[in-house]
Amino acid sequence: MKHHLILNDLSVAIGDAEILKKVNLAIPYNKILAVIGPSGCGKTTLLRTLNRLIDEEKQARVSGEILFKGKSIHQIPLAKLRKDIGLVFQQPTPFPMSIYNNLAYALKYHGVRGKVNLYRIIEAKLRLCGLYEEVKDHLTMSALKLSGGQQQRLSIARSLCVEPEVLLMDEPCSSLDIHNTKIIEDLIVKLSQHYTIVIVTHNLQQARRIADCTAFFLEGKLIEMNNTEEFFTNPQEEETKQYLQGLFG
Amino acid sequence: MTNFPLRCWTVLSTVLSIGLLFFLLSFVFIKAQGVISLNFILAKPAGFPVGSAGGIWPAVAGSLLVTLIASLFATILAFFTAVYMVFYCRDDRIKLVVNLIIQCIAGIPSIVLGLFGYAFLVIKLELGLSILASGLTLAIMIFPYIQIRLQKLFLETNKQLLEASASLGINRSYTIINLLLPMYRKQILSIITLASGFAMGAAAPVMLTGCMMNAPVPESLASPFMSLPYHLYVLIGQGISLENAYGTAFVLMILVLLLNLLAAVPTLLGMRGKR
To answer: How far apart are the first and last CA of chain B?
Structure first.
């Protein structure tokens, strides 16, 4: 099995609006896939469909098939699916509690017991996200007091705590400055050794810097997907060329 | 039109409303100052007719206890109704109907609630004239007050926090208990405290369901009891002692005021924390 996630004829509609139209896509193991496209082309909806967060929306209708490691995501218990496919949002989403509790919150739910065990995992994930040295003496401090970049790294660390296999990221750097963007980008590249990453981004340069493959969406359709170098130097489709030249979007 | 008249009127209204509270408090205090003492608060009513001498301790204790019972029952019911309405109910028609019903409950005159409490709780359910029957009747009265405010509070929750929690594979119950409850602890306590003040001041729902002219501090949930607003009503209504009535009114007002101040404490502390 080469691919971690496979989408077959995936269509999503919310109310009367068709957001995704018959998308066919295969996402390989431990690679970074960048999803680009103009606003409203369905990038975020794509991520929300992959971990079934879209189900929370009353008017959403999903058709087609999503296979996670060869198995339909509807055959996997919801909690297990969302644990395996984590999602990091555009805005950092620290919970209004201490840094430690932000990370222990999900661990306790998933049955990790004992202070030593909790601390071991929390320390490892904070280190992985390059946050441990910055916060190790303030673990009881409210997470809301961290800077934007730190909050986003905490959100990533929190997602990693439950040991996902796939990490979905919805423009994780859009609210951050250049310095913090660089830190998060380096982190994403490091994480791709162990995790499959799907990152939605508006920043073409970012996609080019970090992604192994890039997919271009326009008006709910997948126009083109290729390995990143090929995608940017030799786009096959006319729409892709125009988008890369900044003619629309 | 210039800004001046409207601005003047808004400032005047604010000053008037604050002034009214001080005027009311000092008016009652001046009238009551002859009887107000620690002994008045801590002694049993005495004299003939009863209440013309002695103190009001059983009424103070009764009021506090019946308020506690009412707040407890109302909060449990209101909390879970609000949680259902915001986090579980997906059918807009059900939401509409439930909201309408709750608003209707809020509009029931308190004396009608008293009558219902008497007919249903005291007679039909055989609770007897008791502090439990009164507490439950008051609970019905303050339930919509708490429910509507809790529902509004929950509706304002940042959707992304809930989604972040869901994205960790966590179910709603755990999210509500471990994320929302701690997050809203202060506001929830504030809402309950304010509602308690409302319950403590009500006479109509308790006078038909368990409140007595003269009773000792209740020993069990089945005991009848005295309450401050009803005691006040009897003292004035039957012309027993105007001075003691003012004394009772003053103590009741101070208790309600204290509850309201208590409700404001978390907000005040929060403001200090943010600065």
So the answer is: 37
